[in-house]
Structure formats: structure tokens, C-alpha cells
Write a structure and sequence with these properties.
The complex is a heterodimer of chains A (303) and B (466). By secondary structure, chain A is α+β, with helices and mostly antiparallel strands. Chain A has a domain at 38-111 and 170-252: Alpha-Beta Plaits. Chain A contains 7 helices and 9 strands, in the order αβαββαββαββαβαβα. In chain A, the strands form 4 sheets. In chain A, strands 8-1-9 form a 3-stranded mixed β-sheet. A two-stranded antiparallel sheet of chain A has the order 2-3. In chain A, α1 runs antiparallel to α7 (255-284). The longest helix of chain A has 30 residues, at 255-284. The radius of gyration of chain A is 26 Å and the shape is globular. Chain B is mostly helical and 466 residues long. Chain B has 20 helices and no strands. Chain B is globular and about 75 Å long. The chains are: A alpha+beta (303), B mainly alpha (466). At the A-B interface, α1, α3, α4, β6 and α7 of A face α4, α5, α7, α8 and α10 of B. The structure holds iron/sulfur cluster (2 copies). Chain A: This is 4Fe-4S dicluster domain-containing protein. Chain A: Heterodimer of a large and a small subunit. Chain A: Its cofactor is [4Fe-4S] cluster. Chain A: [4Fe-4S] cluster 2 binds at residues 57, 169, 172, 185.
């Protein structure tokens, strides 16, 4: 290869790098969530473990019949997690108090979702209403989003051979949220465990409740800061790690962990070509400017 | 193979030139494929080889299960679950295969960019090792993806450019094509298509530099993938700021040692395919590669320790996980480093090869640890791979070995393809040249090379006229 052509190629390469990666750098910025995003405040002190929300979700999302009926409390023997057959589950925790604490789990609809930022085909969308929804038509099934979700939420329909998809709570986006209605589980709850509203208002409401009856609540709203904040927020009477929450999560969105690497990408793209062509020039300079690869495998030269 | 037939008193020409030595006729494609044997002889020697029988058994069991994977779905072959989305296919197949295939860009860089022409005899093996490793990593991926037929989606349908995986996908795809081009020169020689080879020679430097760029980025990107899961990977294997660097740097000794391992196996099983240049240089080359690997290992060890120190994770060392971590480092990094240091100094090639094995095992262990064993370390249950998953992994590795061997037997990887040992109608002067050339295989000086180029051009002119 002619050296001149090569250097020209390098220049083009770097230019492409600069253009192509500026978007990435921006995407790695921090996003506080949409101002009017909705959310749900879950007050664990009110939950009695009736599993109505599970039943409502099952019906609304047209999920398959559960193995154990929704009024059977034997499911509390195990700690369950959301799967492709149950987008929300309630678990029971014996915390030493007189009453057990029940906790509902579903997608927390993060402000800056790890599932979204890790997906290489952009199958996830954070809608302006605050829901994190998923497009099964383009999902490749790499399951990177499941690796990335800090709350272990997305489930996968492994048993489907031809159209396996990620299944997780979508805030009843298509059927309800879009029309300004709360999700099915919120509506179904007989104990009014869940309060639907603007996330910003819910944060205020949560802090108010804690202030009004400090004896009832542990002084923290889970989800206010975790991984950049989540749309679903929790109040509890006991420290959150006692009821299965991961309290070691960072307050930064997950994507900031990757920023270091992403910001290095344009550097490599820009610097390497120049660096290595420079080295090539240096290490071959004494060879009289000839294109001096030994055509070693060539037997006796260019054929 | 050749040796086997020789033993039977049946001397056979090995295909290593355009024309047969005996009668000057061109080899047919069939003869090239059958290594110059008749179909009968070929079959005979294949059946004689016990390794082939083992492969036959593996394929008989594995291939139906592979097909079953696409009919019955992932849950039929894996224990992958909602908590452990990645099992053997990615944890062992992809994440282990990719660092072991970094040899292509390294030797490419050394030879083409740094002008280390002494490494050239082994350059092609390194390039081939890179190409096959990447190719089979993608095969593993195809088995693992829920909807493998959508593999091109991130290239053509929907873009998620902020995702690290998006980089991985693009870089692996482009790098695969770079590697195909690099390996193609050997293929063109073998097929006798000089035009294709010439075209690639022209862009070699460009290919090599894009190779360095793409490799740095996606070797690192594979590590960066795990920074999406802080808290899931055990802190000793996780480092938010250095994860990509750990993966990138360990891929350097990984790739170099893989080349040593492959050449060791080849020396045991297919020495008949080596030409003198490769045979006489192999020990020296092995030592050179090991020197590179030692540097890589030393760097890797340093940044690994910096990783632990930076986030102050020393307390974990005293736990069970810490013991496992220490095992990985001792066995896969410190031991080979010590072995290399001693063996290089005393010129003990056998020991170097042993160290190379250890390094390869160490790199694989690191990837499996990160992606599978220490993943979700806080959860009470570990995922044990399904037996069908293991069978598919073994089968795919066997296919890899068979393809590897198939190519090594045929293409000019271990030997130089001879192009001008043909009786041609040419002037006496050129004949003189050709004769002097075949005696001196490796041209020493540039000016000799120029002569060769001239004479070769004349020769090929003469040949086509002929
Ligand atoms: S909880 Fe998990 S699945 Fe839900 S938005 Fe956040 S990262 Fe995505
Ligand atoms: S499994 Fe689907 S949605 Fe999840 S990261 Fe992969 S392509 Fe995106």
C-alpha cells in the first residue's frame, strides 16, 4: 500500500470517528427523567399480601394461567422474582416484628434505565409518561438488558423457539397509562398500597408521610436516588435490605459506569491510525522508502 | 498423513505449489482438496486416524442436539434463567474465544507496522487463529441469541449506538471482514488467483491498522459490558474504571499463547505440513512470542492489582471468593510469568509451551469467572449448565478444531506456496535467476528482493504467454 493513500485513509477514518461517536458521548450524559413522568408510590406498611395486584396484572397483560392460583398463600414460602409469566410478584419477609412485611416487585421504570442504555438495537423506550416499554419486533434476544437491570426485572420466554421475547412490566402503557389511567395493579389494590401520580409529587408525598408518622416509617424513599431515580418509589417500616431491596446500588445511573469506556472510543479511533502509521514510518524508514513488506509467503516475489 | 503413506512405501507429493513436481501439470482443485492423494488413499488415512473417530462420535451426538436447539428453543438446551441470562455459550464460548483470538492483530501489527520480519513465518498462523476464533465466537453467539436470524439488526434495522454491545457487534463484524481479507492471501495463492492476492497486498497496512483499532476497542468493550452490572459480578472481578483495560490487556498474552499452543499441537500432529523455514524457526518464534506474552502478563498483573487497590477491595481477598481469585491469578498469571522468565533465559522451549498452556487456561478461567461463576454472587443459587448445553459447546469446539485442521492441512500457513518452480519457456537469463532463487528461499536484502520482483514479473509474463 502506498503510504500516502494510507495516511489519507487514516484521516478519513478519524473524521468518521469524530462524527460517528459524538452521539454516543451525548447519550452517556445524565438524564433526570421527564418532568411530567408518572410514577407509583408503594407503601409497604399497608400491604397485606393478598396478591390482587398479581391477578390484575395477569388479566390486563393476558398472561398464562399461573401454576398456583392467586388466592393461594403457599407461594410465600419461596422468594419469587418477576418472570415472563408473572410481571409482578409479591414476596413475604419475616422481619422480626409482629407482622410480616410484603413487598411487590415489578419493573421500577427507571429514569435512566440500564435495560435501555444496554440494548444495542434500542428495543426499549422511556416514554414521556414515564413508562419503560419494549419493542419485541426488533429484539435480537441477546439478554444483555437482563444482565444490566439492577433490579433483576426482565424475564425471558426461553421456551419459545421462534419468537422468544423479553417480558417485563410496561406500566400498562398501551392499555392505560397512555390514556392517563393508572396501571391495573394500582386500581385493583384493596389496601391502597399504591398511589399513582406525578413522580415529582410522589417524592414529596412520601417525605410528608415519613414526617407525619416517623414511628411508622423507615426514613428513606427507596427509588428516589437509586441508579438515578426510579418511577416506582417505596416506603417501608423496616430498613430496605430487610425486605429484599438491594441497598448497595449506586446513585449514579448505570450508564455512567460505561462512560469511561465510551469516551475512550473516539480517542482510539482518532489516535491509533496516526500513532501506528507513525510507528510504521519510523520502523521502516531506513529501508529507502520502499514498500518493504517481505513478501514472505510469496515464494519468489509478486506473482 | 504423508508420513503414513510413505511408511507404506507409497511416496506421495504434498501439494505446496501450483504445479506438480513430477510432471509440471497444474494440480486440480480436487487434488488440492485431497492433499494430492487419490480419494481412496484419502479415505484410508482418514479412517486410520483415531481422532477422527472421536470426532465422529461427538458429531453423531452433538449435531442432532444442535438442530434441536433451533426447533425446541433455548429452554430445551440451557438452564439459562431470568437470573442467569448468559450460560456456557457466551460465558465460555464467546468470552473465552475472543481473547484467545487476538493473535491476528498482534502479529499483524508486529510484522506489518513494526517491521518485525523475523516473526513472519508465524504471522499467517496468528491471522488464521484470529479469524477462526472470531468466526466461532459468532457461531456460539448464534446458538445463544434468542432470535439469531436477527443478528444483522444492529447493523441495518435498529441502532442503539450508546450501548457497548453495539460497538462489539459492529467491531466484531468489521474485524471479521478484515481478518477474512488478511487470511485470503493464503487462499488466493492456494487457488492460484494472483490478482486477488495482489489486491490485498496493496491494502495490507490499512487492514492491519484497522485491525489494531477494532481489536483494542472490542476486546475492551467485552469487558466494558460487565460494567453495566455493578454488584452482580463479584467485586474482585469487577472494576468500573479498569474492566475494559483488564480484558484488553489479558487478551494480549491470551492470543500470543494460543498461537504457541496451536503450533505445539501442530508440531506433534502435522509436522509433515511444515516447510524448513517454519520448522527451523519454530523454537525461536515460540520464544519471541513468549517474550511478548510475559510483558503482557506483567502489565496485566499490575493493572489487576491496581484495580483491587483503587477500589480498596483487599478485604475480599480473605474470603472464599478471594481464594478462588488468588488461584486464578497464581495459576494463570504468576505461574506462567515465572515459567516464561526461567524458560526464556535458559532457552527451554518445552517449558515455554507449558507456560503458554497455563496462560490460555488462565485467560479462559478469567472470562468464565467474570461471566458465569462469580456472576450474581449474591444470589444463593448458582446456575449449573444443562448437559445439552455442554454437548453443544463441545460439538462446536470440535467443529472448530476440524475446520482449523482442514485449513492447516491445505493452505500455505506452515509453508510457503511455491509459484515459480515451473518449467517455463523463458530466456536463459531468467532461468538462471529462477534457479538461484530456489536455492535461496528467503531473500536477504532489499535489492535481492527487487531482482526477484523483476524476474518474477517476467516469469509470470512468460508463463501467461506460454
Ligand atoms: S427496573 Fe430494570 S427493566 Fe425496569 S426500567 Fe429499570 S433497568 Fe429497565
Ligand atoms: S435482549 Fe432484546 S431488548 Fe434486551 S438488550 Fe438484547 S436486543 Fe435489547
Amino acid at each position: 500500500m502506498k503510504r500516502r493513500d494510507f495516511l489519507k485513509g487514516c484521516l478519513m477514518c478519524s473524521a468518521a470517528a469524530a462524527v460517528g461517536t459524538s452521539g454516543k458521548a451525548q447519550a452517556a450524559g445524565s438524564f433526570e427523567g421527564y418532568p411530567d413522568a408518572m410514577g407509583v408510590l408503594v407503601d409497604l406498611t399497608r400491604c397485606v399480601g393478598c396478591r390482587s395486584c398479581e391477578a390484575a396484572c395477569n388479566k390486563e397483560q393476558k398472561l398464562p394461567e399461573p401454576d398456583v392460583p392467586f388466592d393461594d398463600t403457599s407461594v410465600f414460602e419461596d422468594k419469587r422474582r418477576p418472570t415472563e409469566r408473572a410481571l409482578t410478584v409479591v414476596n413475604r419477609y419475616e422481619t422480626g416484628g409482629s407482622e410480616p412485611v410484603y413487598r411487590k416487585i415489578q419493573c421500577n421504570h427507571c429514569n435512566e434505565p440500564a435495560c435501555l442504555t444496554s440494548c444495542f438495537v434500542n428495543a426499549y423506550t422511556k416514554t414521556k409518561e414515564g413508562a419503560v416499554i419494549y419493542n419485541p419486533k426488533i429484539c435480537v434476544g441477546c439478554r444483555n438488558c437482563m444482565i444490566a437491570c439492577p433490579f433483576n426485572v426482565p424475564g425471558y420466554s426461553y421456551s419459545s423457539a421462534f419468537n422468544p421475547v423479553v417480558k417485563k412490566c410496561i406500566f400498562c402503557y398501551d392499555t392505560r397509562l397512555k390514556n392517563g389511567k393508572p396501571p391495573a395493579c394500582v386500581e385493583s389494590c384493596p389496601q391502597e398500597v399504591m398511589t399513582f401520580g406525578k413522580r415529582a409529587d410522589l417524592v414529596k408525598l412520601g417525605h410528608e408521610r415519613i414526617r407525619e408518622t416517623p414511628s411508622r416509617y423507615y426514613d428513606k424513599i427507596y427509588g428516589e436516588k437509586e441508579v438515578g431515580g426510579t418511577g416506582w418509589l417505596y416506603l417501608s417500616s423496616v430498613p430496605f435490605d430487610k425486605v429484599g431491596f438491594d441497598t448497595t446500588l449506586q446513585n449514579e445511573p448505570i450508564i455512567s459506569n460505561v462512560k469511561d469506556f465510551l469516551s475512550m472510543v473516539p480517542m482510539v479511533l482518532a489516535i491509533w491510525p496516526a500513532l501506528f502509521s507513525g510507528i510504521h514510518l519510523l520502523s521502516t524508514k531506513n529501508k529507502d522508502g520502499h514498500d518493504d513488506h517481505d513478501d514472505s509467503h510469496n515464494g519468489t516475489g509478486g506473482h | 498423513m504423508k508420513r503414513y503413506l510413505k511408511e507404506k512405501g507409497n511416496s506421495v507429493e504434498v501439494v505446496d505449489a501450483l504445479h506438480r513436481n513430477s510432471d509440471g501439470r497444474k494440480w486440480t482443485i480436487m487434488e488440492k482438496l485431497l492433499l494430492g492423494l487419490t480419494p481412496r488413499e484419502y479415505l484410508q488415512q482418514a479412517l486410520k486416524n483415531p481422532v477422527n473417530w472421536i470426532f465422529a462420535v461427538i458429531f453423531a451426538i452433538g449435531v442432532p442436539i444442535m438442530i434441536g436447539r433451533f426447533i425446541f428453543g433455548l429452554s430445551w438446551v440451557t438452564h439459562s434463567s431470568c437470573d442467569y441470562p448468559w450460560g456456557l455459550f457466551l460465558g465460555f464460548g464467546l468470552f473465552a474465544m475472543v481473547p484467545l483470538s487476538s493473535s491476528g492483530f498482534q502479529l499483524g501489527t508486529a510484522c506489518e507496522v513494526f517491521g518485525r520480519h523475523d516473526l513472519e513465518p508465524i504471522e499467517r498462523l496468528a491471522l488464521l487463529n484470529g479469524l477462526l476464533g472470531y468466526f466461532f465466537a459468532v457461531c456460539f453467539l448464534l446458538f445463544d441469541l434468542g432470535q439469531p436470524w436477527r443478528l444483522p439488526y444492529p447493523m441495518v434495522v435498529a441502532f442503539g449506538p450508546a450501548a457497548v454491545l453495539f460497538l462489539v457487534a459492529w467491531h466484531v463484524a468489521t474485524y471479521l471482514s478484515v481478518q477474512i481479507a488478511e487470511v485470503a492471501t493464503g487462499f488466493f495463492e492456494w487457488m492460484g488467483w494472483p490478482a486477488g492476492k495482489k489486491a490485498i497486498r496493496k491494502i495490507t497496512l490499512g487492514l492491519t491498522v484497522s485491525g489494531i483499532i477494532l481489536s483494542t476497542l472490542h476486546q475492551g468493550a467485552l469487558g466494558a459490558l460487565f460494567t453495566y452490572a455493578p454488584g452482580k459480578v463479584h467485586p474482585l472481578w469487577y472494576s468500573a474504571s479498569f474492566q475494559w483495560l483488564h480484558f484488553f490487556v489479558s487478551s494480549i498474552p491470551g492470543g500470543l499463547c494460543m498461537v504457541i499452543v496451536v503450533s505445539t499441537i501442530a508440531a506433534k500432529t502435522m509436522a509433515w505440513r511444515f516447510d524448513d523455514r517454519f520448522k527451523t524457526n519454530l523454537d525461536k518464534l515460540t520464544i519471541s512470542l513468549a517474550k511478548g506474552a510475559t510483558m503482557g502478563l506483567a502489565t496485566y498483573l499490575t493493572i489487576k492489582l491496581i484495580g483491587v487497590a483503587h477500589d480498596n477491595k483487599w478485604e475480599y481477598i480473605a474470603t472464599g471468593w478471594g481464594a478462588w481469585y488468588a488461584t486464578e491469578i497464581l495459576l494463570g498469571v504468576i505461574a506462567p510469568m515465572a515459567i516464561f522468565a526461567f524458560a526464556i533465559k535458559n532457552n527451554k522451549v518445552g517449558l515455554v509451551r507449558f507456560g503458554a498452556w497455563l496462560t490460555v487456561i488462565g485467560v479462559v478461567l478469567n472470562r468464565v469467572n467474570t461471566a458465569m461463576i462469580t456472576f450474581n454472587w449474591k444470589l444463593p443459587e448458582r446456575e449449573i449448565p444443562h448437559w445439552r448445553e455442554a454437548v453443544i459447546a463441545i460439538t462446536l469446539y470440535s467443529v472448530y478444531i476440524v475446520v482449523y485442521r482442514f485449513i492447516l492441512y491445505r493452505l500455505p500457513i506452515f509453508y510457503k506456496w511455491k509459484t515459480v518452480e515451473v518449467p517455463v519457456e523463458a530466456t536463459e537469463g531468467i532461468r538462471e535467476h529462477a534457479r538461484s532463487l530456489s536455492e535461496e528461499m528467503i531473500p536477504e536484502s532489499v535489492c535481492a528482493k527487487e531482482d526477484i520482483a523483476v524476474s518474477a514479473r517476467q516469469l509470470s509474463g512468460a508463463e501467461s504467454a506460454h
